[in-house]
Amino acid sequence: MMDTLFDLRGRVAVVTGGSRGIGAMIARGFVEQGVRTYISARNAEALEETARVLSTYGECIALPANLAKREDLESFARELASRETKIDILVNNAGATWGASLEEFPEHGWDKVMDLNVKSIFFLTQALLPRLRSAASKEAPARVLNIGSINGLGYAPLSNYSYSASKAAVHHLTRQLAVDLAADNINVNAIAPGFFPSKMTAHMLEHEAEMVTAIPRGRLGTPEDAAGTAIYLCSRAAAFVTGHVLVLDGGQHVAGR
């Protein structure tokens, strides 16, 4: 049994925001583990290219969607339901950020971030509950994995007010859903990443040498870090883990940096 603790072969996963960044890292990890993996993003061209690359390692299917729009989210859920009778893993990773000074922060920037980062997580999970329940059992729970951020754990020295607030909401929503879905044999956890190379952090990477001085491990996150953490939380090894926010930041948060 111990040699299959991290075995995900034969499962079905959905990864939102899967065309790049942490979403693509997690999706590749699943695909290489033998998981049939659906990825979504707004940019259909970029999504198809990622699916093409990941399909060289296993089975990856692109389903473009703008999950910030309720009608697109519902259409996406219906398309998944038409293809799969069960979904073992849902990774809610799609996200956006917005930066502006406190005095100038716009309402549309607040709403854009909250709609995608928080609202879409709740309503996509709600829409896919029948398929998650179909996959779940006492011994092998289905998994919902929400991607938060260390910016949602405490003060973030950046003018991204709606982003930090949204990620704190993701962490708390994770705890709420974990308790409410435990009886359905669905585990709900979150990952709170620190700095990983992505489009969202691209504007900061020119200062990478300075950034890593704030990280006790002395480096940024890697694809192996993201994929390995997701694989653990979705495997038999974490079947008794639910309602937790796993911080993945090389020690930055606990060091207070």
What this model shows, in words?
The chain is of the alpha/beta class and 257 residues long. It has one domain (2-248): NAD(P)-binding Rossmann-like Domain (Rossmann fold, 3-Layer(aba) Sandwich). The chain is 40% helix and 14% strand. It has seven helices and seven strands; from the N terminus they run βαβαβαβαβαβααβ. It has helices spanning 21-32, 44-54, 70-83, 107-135, 161-181, 208-211, 223-233; strands at residues 12-16, 36-40, 60-62, 89-92, 142-147, 186-193, 245-248. Strands 3-2-1-4-5-6-7 form a seven-stranded parallel beta sheet, sandwiched between helices. Helix 1 (21-32) crosses helix 7. The radius of gyration is 17 Å and the shape is globular. The relative contact order is 0.15. The mean pLDDT is 95.
Helix/strand layout:
Elements: E1 12-16, H1 21-32, E2 36-40, H2 44-54, E3 60-62, H3 70-83, E4 89-92, H4 107-135, E5 142-147, H5 161-181, E6 186-193, H6 208-211, H7 223-233, E7 245-248
Parallel strand pairs: 1-2, 1-4, 2-3, 4-5, 5-6, 6-7
Helix pairs in contact: 1-7, 3-4, 4-5
**Integer tally of domains:** 1
First-last Cα distance: 41 Å
Please give the number of β-strands. Answer: 7
What is the helix fraction of residues, given as a range? 25-40%
By DSSP (H or I, 4+ residues per run), the number of helices equals 7
Rg on CA atoms, Å: 17 Å
Strand order of the largest sheet: 3-2-1-4-5-6-7
- Poorly predicted runs are none
CATH superfamily: NAD(P)-binding Rossmann-like Domain
**Overall CATH architecture:** 3-Layer(aba) Sandwich
Strand content: 5-15%
Silhouette: globular
Largest beta-sheet details: 7 strands, parallel
**Which CATH C-level class is it?**
Alpha Beta
State the secondary-structure class.
alpha/beta
CATH topology: Rossmann fold
Following the backbone from N to C, one meets helices and strands in this order, namely EHEHEHEHEHEHHE
Average pLDDT confidence is: 95
